[in-house]
Amino acid sequence: MSGGRTTCSYFPPDDKHILYASTHEHDAAAPLQAQRRDDGK
Question: What is the Cα–Cα distance from 9 to 28, expressed in whole angstroms?
């Protein structure tokens, strides 16, 4: 797998599944890196 990014994820309490969104099939170029705030969020 190459290109794209995982944009968000959710780990349900069952510890058996992961739900995530990714841009890897949309475009070969990864989206720009988001700038973090000074407080790290």
Answer: 21
